[in-house]
UniProtKB/TrEMBL annotation:
<comment type="similarity">
    <text>Belongs to the ATP-dependent AMP-binding enzyme family.</text>
</comment>
<dbReference type="InterPro" id="IPR025110">
    <property type="entry name" value="AMP-bd_C"/>
</dbReference>
<dbReference type="GO" id="GO:0005829">
    <property type="term" value="C:cytosol"/>
</dbReference>
<keyword id="KW-0007">Acetylation</keyword>
<dbReference type="GO" id="GO:0005524">
    <property type="term" value="F:ATP binding"/>
</dbReference>
<keyword id="KW-0547">Nucleotide-binding</keyword>
<dbReference type="InterPro" id="IPR000873">
    <property type="entry name" value="AMP-dep_synth/lig_dom"/>
</dbReference>
<feature type="domain" description="AMP-binding enzyme C-terminal">
    <location>
        <begin position="528"/>
        <end position="606"/>
    </location>
</feature>
<feature type="binding site">
    <location>
        <begin position="408"/>
        <end position="413"/>
    </location>
    <ligand>
        <name>ATP</name>
    </ligand>
</feature>
<feature type="binding site">
    <location>
        <position position="308"/>
    </location>
    <ligand>
        <name>CoA</name>
    </ligand>
</feature>
<comment type="function">
    <text>Catalyzes the conversion of acetate into acetyl-CoA (AcCoA), an essential intermediate at the junction of anabolic and catabolic pathways. AcsA undergoes a two-step reaction. In the first half reaction, AcsA combines acetate with ATP to form acetyl-adenylate (AcAMP) intermediate. In the second half reaction, it can then transfer the acetyl group from AcAMP to the sulfhydryl group of CoA, forming the product AcCoA.</text>
</comment>
<keyword id="KW-0436">Ligase</keyword>
<feature type="binding site">
    <location>
        <position position="534"/>
    </location>
    <ligand>
        <name>Mg(2+)</name>
    </ligand>
</feature>
<dbReference type="GO" id="GO:0019427">
    <property type="term" value="P:acetyl-CoA biosynthetic process from acetate"/>
</dbReference>
<dbReference type="GO" id="GO:0003987">
    <property type="term" value="F:acetate-CoA ligase activity"/>
</dbReference>
<feature type="binding site">
    <location>
        <position position="497"/>
    </location>
    <ligand>
        <name>ATP</name>
    </ligand>
</feature>
<keyword id="KW-0479">Metal-binding</keyword>
Length: 646
């Protein structure tokens, strides 16, 4: 693997929000006196009732529970809106860029306040109260952010279901949290295509008796069926609603939202986050990791249906009084230059996206990037999967013209926000490494028996102590929460990921522990072999899984997607085998390479290796839950092209 080192750029080293010396002092305080450290950090929020208690969490079975700032009271929407009004009322809070490049809206903090209050009044008039669960099934339109914040103003708990999910997936999530109300749109619009959201809701509600009201935002104006007494349009209700709504004082430990994980490894879990700790974490990490400065335009491309959209499109940036860009469209519409055109159009300083998007764009060549100036860009971020060094270098060199630090941010729905990532003004970068833990985060690596491993090593990634943004429970199933995360290695939070730690203490996420391949006793993360394959000039993307092997125990089965314009051939297959052998060593020699025009991915763009593993094992009859796949038809093609017989 590439071990290039990119030092902190001189200008940033001097004037970043957090420089190396501030970082050292903050780490030291967080370690020596966490109570004082967290009391200080929590002052970045406005509290209605100040807290006296800080961390009362325990990972042990006897007194298990996660709790931060428990006796404090605050309101999330007041922190994200009201407190900015005096100084930033006329500053854009949200810049909305529509699917069609001609479509946009700028919403100031003052307007955001009005819209959120109106939405809260509409929800309230339909019976929504503090503690109620509200399911949001919305496209990336400003009303999605208004609805989220309106829930927090009332103290209702939102559960956002990604608008690409099917009626069945929506229904199971509505049932799981027992929502009485669903907010949706007539249709969504992505890449010029219409998504029938209201029709999906109607289909879902055939299987959900709990829902009494459906509020429909008119995005496209399509003619949709409306059930009398149950369904209403948002527009007229909004116009009639009052423009004020007093924010509820919520306990720091009151639930804020439920969000289901993306389902890469199994059935999605209803992750519940709390009011105080979550908002603190989203806000702190947004400022620290992106070196956010007042007035800058910040763009996270994630959909609000994922946790990244919650923490880094809405809550973190708005808590910090930032201007956050919200994008309705897709990276390849009208063409592959869209991201960079949007950066130029709105003077984006900070840009945050996922490796899957980068690899897809990289595949199309550099000209689309170079068609835009990207002169405003200052910091680039990555999240969702390990970013392979090849994609990292491209992001740095081509997208950022070699000027912009890349923050590779490791975290999970469960963690609420980023846990391991560089601080652009303090951390030297290594392509492919998420680098170092943030303040007050205590990662550790353990072996299969749970023994802590020291120094440069590789193992299972756990977190030793709670942090404020940690999830509080699996909704409705606290036992499952404890069972899933705290019993594999008692007394520790187990992330499910594997990682390597190098001599500088940098973390390299090697992939899911369940995906580790054991070849003749050598344990190998999927990320390493995949990175080697992607480093080949003709390869766009690769996914590697283990397969049964009579001699080695496990062999390596690699699925490879070639760059646009490259043709699969036996000769190329041989070249790739030799290439990986040469890059990593004979132990990593792939046994089988299958060319795959598409890989099975979750809707959030992550490769679902468990499906690929089943195909590699020849167990195509037992693929498990594939309802969160973006394109299930990919699977049939993969099975048809399986190389097992060869
Ligand atoms: P499920 O838990 O239902 O299987 P999921 O784990 O894909 O779904 P998320 O919470 O969206 O759901 O994803 C978190 C996971 O994504 C992490 O555990 C890790 O495997 C991966 N990940 C996220 N960011 C990074 C990163 N920067 N580097 C490496 N891996 C990352
Ligand atoms: Mg997970």
């Amino acid at each position: 693997m590439s071990e290039a080192l990119y030092p902190v750029p001189a200008a940033l080293a001097a004037d970043a929000r957090i420089t190396a010396s501030t970082a050292a002092a903050m780490h030291a305080l967080a370690a020596s006196d966490p109570d004082t450290f967290w009391r200080q950090q929590a002052q970045r929020l406005d509290w209605i009732t100040p807290f006296t208690k800080v961390d009362e969490s325990s990972f042990n079975e006897a007194d298990f529970g996660i709790s931060w700032f428990a006796d404090g009271q605050l309101n999330v929407s007041a922190n994200c809106i009201d407190r900015h009004l005096a100084t930033r009322g006329d500053q854009p809070a949200i810049i909305w860029e529509g699917d069609d490049p001609a479509d946009s809206r700028v919403i100031t903090y003052a307007q955001l306040h009005e819209e959120v209050c109106r939405f809260a009044n509409v929800l309230k008039s339909h019976g929504v109260q503090r503690g109620d669960r509200v399911t949001l099934y919305l496209p990336m339109i400003p009303e999605a952010a208004f609805a989220m914040l309106a829930c927090t103003r009332i103290g209702a708990v939102h559960s956002i279901v990604f608008a690409g999910f099917s009626p069945d997936s929506l229904a199971s999530r509505i049932r799981d949290c027992d929502s009485r109300i669903v907010v949706t749109a007539d249709e969504g619009l992505r890449g010029g295509k219409r998504v029938p959201l209201k029709a999906n809701v109607d289909a879902a509600l055939d299987h959900c008796s709990s829902v009494e009201k459906v509020i429909v935002v008119q995005r496209t104006g399509a003619d949709v069926a409306m059930v009398a007494g149950r369904d209403l349009f948002y527009g007229p209700a909004r116009d009639a609603a009052a423009t004020d709504y007093a924010p509820q004082a919520m306990g720091a430990e009151d639930p804020l939202f439920i969000l289901y994980t993306s389902g890469s490894t199994g059935t999605p879990k209803g992750v519940l986050h709390s009011t105080g700790g979550y908002l603190l974490w989203a806000s702190m990490t947004h400022e620290h990791v992106f070196d956010y400065r007042p007035g800058e335009v910040y763009w996270c491309t994630a959909d609000i249906g994922w946790v990244t959209g919650h923490s880094y499109v809405v809550y973190g940036p708005l808590a910090n009084g930032a201007t956050t860009l919200m994008f309705e469209g897709v990276p390849n519409y009208p063409d592959h230059s869209r991201f960079w055109q949007v950066c130029d159009k709105w003077n984006v300083s900070i840009f945050y996206t996922a490796p899957t998007a980068l690899r897809a764009l990289m595949r199309e060549g550099d000209a689309y990037v170079q068609a835009a100036s990207r002169a405003s860009l200052r910091i680039l971020g990555s999240v969702g999967e390990p970013i392979n060094p090849e994609a990292w270098e491209w992001y740095h060199r081509i997208v950022g013209d070699g000027r912009c630090p890349i923050v590779d941010t490791w975290w999970q729905t469960e963690t609420g926000g980023i846990l391991i990532a560089p601080l652009p003004g303090a951390t030297d970068l290594k392509p492919g490494s998420a680098t170092l833990p943030l303040f007050g985060v205590h990662p550790l690596l353990v072996d299969a028996e749970g023994q802590e491993l020291d120094g440069a090593t590789e193992g299972n990634l756990c977190i030793a102590k709670s942090w404020p943004g940690q999830m509080r429970t699996v909704y409705g199933d606290h036992a499952r929460f404890f069972q899933t995360y705290f019993t594999t290695y008692p007394g520790r939070y187990f992330t499910g990921d594997g990682a390597r730690r190098d001599a500088d203490g940098y973390y390299w996420i090697t992939g899911r522990v369940d995906d580790v391949i054991n070849v003749s006793g050598h344990r190998m993360g999927t990320a390493e072999v995949e990175s080697a394959l992607v480093a080949h000039a003709k390869v766009a993307e690769a996914a590697v899984v283990g397969m049964p092997h009579p001699i080695k125990g496990q062999g390596i089965y690699a699925y490879v997607t070639l760059n646009a314009n490259e043709e699969p051939s036996d000769d190329l297959r041989k070249q790739l085998v030799a290439w990986v052998r040469n890059e990593i060593g004979p132990i990593a020699t792939p046994d089988i390479i299958q060319f795959a025009p598409g890989l099975p991915k979750t809707r959030s763009g992550k490769i679902m290796r468990r499906i690929l593993r089943k195909i590699a094992e020849g167990e195509t009859g037992a693929l498990g839950d594939i309802s969160t796949l973006a394109d299930p038809s990919v699977v049939e093609k993969l099975i048809a092209d399986s190389q097992l017989a060869s």
